[in-house]
Request: fold
Amino acid sequence: MSAEEAGGVFHKAQGRTLDAFSAEKEREWKGPFYFIQGADPQFGLMKAWSTGDSDSGGDEWEQEIRLTEQAIQAINKLNPKPRFFVLCGDLIHAMPGAPWRKEQTEDLQRVLRRVDREIPLVLVSGNHDVGNAPTPETIAEFQQTWGDDYFSFWVGGVLFLVLNSQFLCDASRCAALKQAQDRWLEQQLSTAGQRQCRHAVVFQHIPLFLQSIDEDDDYFNLSKTVRKEMADKFLKAGIRAVFAGHYHRNAGGTYKTLDMVVSSALGCQLGKDTHGLRVVVVTAEKIIHRYYSLDELSERGIEDDLMDLMKKK
Reply:
């Protein structure tokens, strides 16, 4: 089932942009706004993790369905509406070619149809979506199912860049595709570097780092060489923040003026955090974010201090 067949709610990224937003209309700063970030719904991981068979044990995902439905219900109730809802990768658990991939995809698409049509959905590729070592075929499958694996869009004078972070981990089977993203990114960072936008923000699945730019290499971060190279490029271009998932726990840190924000999962938790979403408020001067459990967001909504920030022009 393609994104179009899923009812049009996905505003499928094509041509390296998102047609839900008009670049011409959205380049101008019009005042504070907010968006919602989630990560790792990863249909199938909760069962796989509980049985100790994370490679092929994800044959049930009812819990993830219920959690994602709860998240969407909470988002749809928010007033004013968020400008968009971004999911930072690992949409499903089954790797390319693995059992249950088709079923997990169809169930997630069915659930995501329930997102309010006035809230565009921004989808980021994760390692489970394109494979740990992606190929032209796995990238093509992702593009057919969910849209472009990297793209940019403007909202309210802010430039948002969506990256395929697997190219930064292992591009051994798709070197030409990585090079194409690299060239595209240089162009996008040039726009940001000319300060043609109020802020510039990056979304990717794998964090640059979890706490510190100098931390050891780990499954959950990019290698030291790559993270430093990318962070310095982002800094030079004036990127304010990078939002990611992958860790299934909340984490993050700051490198000079760059904020690395790591959000825990909608689905399976690997630490002490709760299933949740991050509310991100963008003001003229800064970007403020807060993680809410699904219960908190469902029952109480966004707190007054964050709402007040959006009333200031």
